[in-house]
Amino acid sequence: MTAPLFNRDVLLPGMDISRMTPALISKGIVLRTQGLRVLLSGTGLSHDAKLIRCGSQWFVGDAHMGKVAQMTPLEKWEDDMRRGKARVVVYRPIGVTPERMAMSAFYWQTEISGQKMYDAKAIRHLLFFYATAELFGIRLGDEDRVFCTEGVKEADVRGGGYDPYRKPNGYEKINPTPGTTRNRIVGKNGWRTLAVVPDALTEDGKRYSIMI
Questions:
Q1: What pLDDT score was predicted for residue 66?
Q2: Per-residue pLDDT reduced to its tens digit, 120-179
Q3: What phi and psi, each to the nearest 5 degrees, are found at residue 201?
Q4: Structure pTM?
Q5: Structural domains of the chain, count
Q6: What is the CATH number of the domain that holds 171?
Q7: Residue 84: left (phi > 0), alpha (psi -120 to 50), or beta?
Q8: d(CA 187, CA 177)
Q9: Is the per-residue pLDDT at 1 higher than 70?
């Protein structure tokens, strides 16, 4: 039997998970939102998702390119890790109760999964117009679609009632990206709202960890 890579006894519904893959689009997202230094260091994030539990089964709330948002079995992420297709990090919002996190996960499951299409237009815009959009507070993409980080943020705000993507001044982050996620984990400019869950991966799983 294949050893698990995630420590399911430590995971909580509503924790978030990010990954980086060898794909060119992943590298492009990291380069555009986190910079060359982060890309070369191997500590960048290119895809954000939500951990969801249904009974005893764990899923990842995924918004993938060209697809309707879906709940991916956690075992599929483990398979991708073993095949060298992904490295990951699990984290949680600081100061948020498990109950509110579970509400965020339930929102993703009931209001985003199977309903909202991936916002490919927003990803194209992020790669080329991100700085301009942020400067003028313009939301990129389509209102009825979501890209990965945007779906996570929507579930947190509308489902859980918290917003780890907000700016230090309290204002909304209009176009949150995996770069925003990384900044909130490392505490860029002293603003840290997300914390890595150190024991979320088993000893076998830690080989695939992104060391932010």
A1: 74
A2: 666 666 666 666 666 666 666 666 667 799 999 999 999 999 999 999 999 999 889 999
A3: -105, 145
A4: 0.91
A5: 1
A6: 3.90.1720
A7: left
A8: 15
A9: no
DSSP state of 209: B
How high is the pLDDT of residue 116?
Answer: 87
* Residue 64, both tokens: 């993938």
1 occurs within a structural domain: no
Distance CA 131, CA 198 (A): 33
User: What distances in angstroms separate CA 30 from CA 17, 81, 95, 123, 151, one per listed residue?
Assistant: 16, 19, 27, 12, 18
Domain region containing 62: 16-203
Q: Which residue has the higher pLDDT, 2 or 123?
A: 2
210: in domain = no
CB neighbourhood size of 165 (10 A)? 25
Q: Which 3 state secondary structure label does DSSP give 168?
A: coil
Radius of gyration for the alpha carbons in the chain, expressed in angstroms and rounded? 16
pLDDT, tens digit, for every residue of 41-60? 999 999 999 999 999 999 99
CB 150 within 8 A of CB 176: yes
In a domain, 57, yes or no: yes
Burial class (CB in 10 A: 0-12, 13-18, 19+), 67: exposed
How far the first Cα of the chain sits from its last, in Å, is: 31
Q: Please tell me the predicted confidence (pLDDT) of residue 118.
A: 77
Tally the residues of the chain: 212
Q: Is residue 91 part of a domain?
A: yes
- Cα dihedral value 205, 21, 16, 157, nearest 10: 180
